[in-house]
Amino acid sequence: MRTVFVTVGTTCFDELIGTITSSESAQALKARGYERLVLQIGRGSFVPEADSCPQIKLEVFRFKDSIAEDMKQADLVISHAGAGSCLEALGAGKPLLVVVNDKLMDNHQLELAQQLHVDSHLLYCTCSTLTETLRSMDLSVLQPYQPGQTKIFANFLDKALGVQ
């Protein structure tokens, strides 16, 4: 069963959860052959009902000790733009679509997503463009992220956060 795994990490990103479970997004996923949607909703207050996406099988949880198995089983990972979540998905070798929370004040997440996109490791969008991105995305353009580039990644994060 082709599976999409969505993670918001430890944050609250209700807009992403609401958008991915909308009938338009569920239809876009179904049209691409996905049959199962697993949501890790973190501290969010929006908890979709199991029958809210009749086109696709929906599973929801807040937290687990590890989401490694969920990522391993996924055919596509959709994540917030947190560095840890991005690195975990890329390290698992999964196609990654990052949804940037454009409501954040100092949005370093956008810089991270843009750089990893420029390097062809992921696709990114915002909640307002998520459904269209699901319809038009070409996952074949993505290049594997080579683990061991952690120093380069750490330097990028330091620069983006103004530590250097």
Automatic annotation (TrEMBL):
Entry keywords, A to Z: Endoplasmic reticulum, Glycosyltransferase, Transferase
Protein name in the entry: UDP-N-acetylglucosamine transferase subunit ALG13
Gene3D superfamilies: Glycogen Phosphorylase B (3.40.50.2000)
CC annotations in GO: endoplasmic reticulum
GO biological process: dolichol-linked oligosaccharide biosynthetic process
Residue ranges constituting the Glycosyl transferase family 28 C-terminal domain according to the UniProt record: 3-150
EC number(s) per entry: 2.4.1.141
Enzyme class: transferase
GO molecular function annotations of the record: N-acetylglucosaminyldiphosphodolichol N-acetylglucosaminyltransferase activity
